[in-house]
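S1.2 Input.
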Amino acid sequence: SLLVAGLDAYFKGDYEGALEENKKVLSRYPDRAPGDEALFNIGLIYAHYGNPQKDYNKAFSFFWRLLKEFPQSLRTEEAKVWTGVLNAIEERKIKYISGELPLVPK
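S1.3 Output.
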């Protein structure tokens, strides 16, 4: 399946390939399972520290879409955690840039 191919690519570090496979799933199932899994996986791919194209804002938006479009998904609680963590990262970055706090706590 496309989800399995996407996960296989993800675990091999092929983030671009993983994105491509998950976007195919999402285009085929935009309003039903496994579209929710694809949204979650895309969020993970964009949030992954090893991804050279990492983008926390994009990750947040895919997790947020999952919460709004698939409120009954089994991935809802995990998506809530991720949106909270990504939001905290962005808030910390803003405080660091404005000089309110150091990058690493003392």
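S1.4 Remarks. The CA atoms of residues 1 and 87 lie 32 Å apart.
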